[in-house]
Specification:
Length: 651
């Protein structure tokens, strides 16, 4: 940890907000100071007032926070609302003709939806869900590419009170099956396929494979036609979206639900083998998802907001499907990839649709940076006024490139730290107020009581690294792990006796109170901003008939942040030459099939054993050193068989 801290502390540049953004931003220094003061003085009241002001309630709540079963907190429980009503219907009086979604497909096809059109689409699909037997509380899996129908499906679920769980389209049939079964979902909504980088990617095929292996809870599969590739349809179970929707009304009365009714589950990797279903509620989740679009992105009626995240991740929930719509903003959705047909694609989309606020991940910035500044220079990016980043720490070099080359040296870089579990931004700058330091996500938001503590749970101050924790509950925090309250408590609260929400990241706070995220402290990798559990990949590897044992570690990677490095013990002889190459390929494809291509190891090394202590614990820190290609200087005296290190280094 100490190496990291030192290297980060050498970053001393500070960027004040420009005069233009200072003047434009809805939240100025005075307003922000008043918010901090109010939150400090009355934490629950601060959130309660915002909930009353920002959301449309069918029935007002009388109690903001129910902590009677802490740490299972519930917000605004006796209030009633509907999330989809808050995202769509309430704008219709004043904004029915305003664009809600500007969609650009992989091949450059463009489709616009006004708020009225979005309303009608969502209502028709909500009526379809009801007709197909979906009731309040049922779980619905959405396994779709990045097209407006994914958002329409999410909003329609919210309208009828069904709990959706979006599974990223890049996950395999096996990963899909695990999630369907854990959620005991009644329906899957999918497409024949998706288009990415000029190629048609099948999706329905993976659904069929998953259903062939189990998933007995699934009664219906609704299939949207996107690519028109041939897909088999099983009579009685599978139905085309357009056929199911035929004759449905454009009107649907949204179901008013308790504010703590679950809105969605999103599966995410943790330090144990199986992904957990992070459960989010309705009112509290929407409040923070909406507010942070106002606070961090300063969204107003003239803005065109493009968040490049897929709806399969939390960022695509809070900053595509829900938050900006609750603000009544115009969003861009893009189906394709940043490098197709060439590395100017992102900048072309920004130019063509007049994007003013752009939000992406450091891995994308680093990848596009490699192509040089001449490519973005070919596009008119003058409308951009705020740039955001999320998913992993952004290195100062990428920060500067983003700020100077994409942001003309004027756009503030809003580095937002948060997680699937937190629902919305937690630590981030306000564009019109906060001086920026490249590489720091700056300060916790008002009402977010995030601190850094030592092993004993005592707050530590300047310049020492420790655990990032959150002391007080906040409205968009996860409600629990689906069906497993104990796992929720064990994972997030047990470490400090239920006193703090434990984030799983290490961080340090500098003398100005700025937070610098150092990385995960658990066995979670961050590959291109996506969370992958080392245990998950290890379980996939050992499920291969020829694998006896596996250990996975992260290796620093200049574009992806981290790459997957696997050490494998086969139950056959140590392979060599062409045989070894073939085995490496076989295992990489195996992992892609078990989890998805994002989990494919970049490197695989074979050994006759793994470095273990005499008590049988795998010494991962040694494996990390080997993965980096560095010399081993650590103490290896507790190793059972030190010769194994040489073998793994040479392999
Ligand atoms: C939103 C999202 C969460 C983990 C988190 C941390 C890392 C996210 C970051 C960041 C440094 C940032 N992370 N944003 N690290 N600076 N701005 O990414 O959610 O997929 O659940 O990942 O990502 O390690 O704990 P999720």
């Amino acid at each position: 940890m100490s190496n990291n801290i030192e290297s980060i502390l050498t970053e001393t540049r500070v960027f004040e907000p420009s005069a233009a953004i200072k003047q434009q931003a809805g939240i100025n220094a005075d307003k922000l100071a008043a918010m901090y003061a109010k939150a400090e003085q009355d934490h629950v009241g601060f959130w309660a007032d915002l909930a009353k002001e920002k959301l449309s309630w069918h029935k007002p709540f009388t109690q903001a926070l129910d902590d009677s079963k802490a740490p299972l907190y519930r917000w605004f429980s006796d209030g009633e609302l509907n999330v989809s009503y808050n995202c769509i219907d309430r704008h219709l009086d004043t904004k029915s003709d305003k664009l809600a979604i500007i969609f650009e497909g992989d091949k450059g096809d463009v489709h616009h939806y006004t708020y009225q059109e979005l309303h009608d689409e969502v209502c028709r699909f909500a009526n379809t869900l009801k007709t197909q037997g979906i009731k309040q509380g049922d779980r619905v899996i959405i396994y779709m590419p990045m097209i407006p129908q994914a958002v329409i499906a999410m909003q329609a679920c919210a309208r009828v009170g069904a709990i959706h769980s979006v599974v990223f389209g890049g996950f395999s049939a096996e990963a899909l099956k695990d999630r369907v079964e854990n959620a005991a979902a009644k329906m899957i909504i999918t497409t024949d396929g998706g288009l990415r980088g000029g190629k048609a990617i099948p999706l329905k095929g993976a659904v069929d494979q998953a259903l062939a292996k189990g998933c007995d809870s699934v009664k219906k599969v609704i299939v949207y036609q996107r690519t028109k590739q041939d897909v088999p349809m099983q009579a009685g179970r599978d139905i085309w979206w357009h056929e199911a929707e035929a004759g449905m009304s454009n009107y649907h009365d949204p179901v008013m639900l308790p504010a703590d009714h679950p809105l969605f589950l999103l599966y995410t990797s943790g330090s144990t083998g199986t992904p957990k279903g992070v459960q989010h509620g309705s009112g509290g989740y929407l409040l923070n998802a909406m507010l942070t679009n106002e606070w961090m992105f300063d969204l107003n009626d003239q803005d065109v907001f493009w968040c490049t995240a897929d709806v399969g991740w939390i960022t695509g929930h809070s900053y595509v499907a829900y938050g900006p719509l609750a603000m009544g903003a115009t969003i861009v959705m893009f189906e394709g990839v940043p490098t197709y047909p060439d590395a100017g694609r992102f900048w072309q989309v920004c130019q063509d649709h007049g994007v003013t606020v752009f939000y992406t991940a450091p891995t994308a910035i680093r990848a596009l940076m490699k192509f040089g500044k001449d490519i973005p220079a070919q596009y008119d990016l003058s409308k951009l006024r705020i740039l955001g980043t999320v998913g992993e720490p952004i290195n100062p070099e990428a920060w500067m490139w983003y700020h100077e080359v994409i942001g003309r040296g004027e756009c503030p870089i809003i580095d937002t730290w948060w997680q699937t579990e937190t629902g919305a931004h937690m630590i981030a700058p306000f564009p019109g107020v906060t001086p920026l330091k490249p590489g720091s996500c700056t300060r916790p938001l008002p009402g977010i009581d995030a601190i850094v503590v030592d092993e004993e749970g005592n707050e530590i101050g300047n310049n020492s690294g420790g655990y990032l924790v959150v002391r007080k509950p906040w409205p968009s925090m996860l409600q629990t792990v689906w069906g497993d309250d104990q796992r929720y408590i064990d994972t997030y609260y047990a470490k400090f006796n239920n006193k703090y929400y434990v984030v799983g990241d290490s961080a340090h706070k500098d003398a100005d109170g700025y937070i610098w995220i150092l990385g995960r402290i658990d066995d979670v990798l961050n590959v291109s901003g996506h969370r992958l559990g080392t245990m998950e990949i290890e379980s996939a590897l050992v499920a291969h008939p020829k694998v006896a044992e596996a250990a996975v570690v992260g290796k620093p990677h200049d574009v992806k942040g981290e790459s997957v490095f696997a050490f494998v013990v086969l139950n056959t002889d140590l392979p060599a030459g062409a045989e070894r190459d073939a085995m490496v390929n076989e295992l990489r494809n195996w992992v892609a099939q078990e989890i998805g291509p994002i989990a494919k190891p970049d490197d695989i090394r074979f050994g006759t054993n793994l470095p273990k202590t005499r008590s049988g614990k795998i010494m991962r820190r040694l494996l990390r050193t080997i993965a980096k290609g560095e010399e081993i200087t650590q103490d290896t005296s507790t190793l059972e068989d030190p010769s194994i290190l040489k073998q793994l280094q040479q392999a």
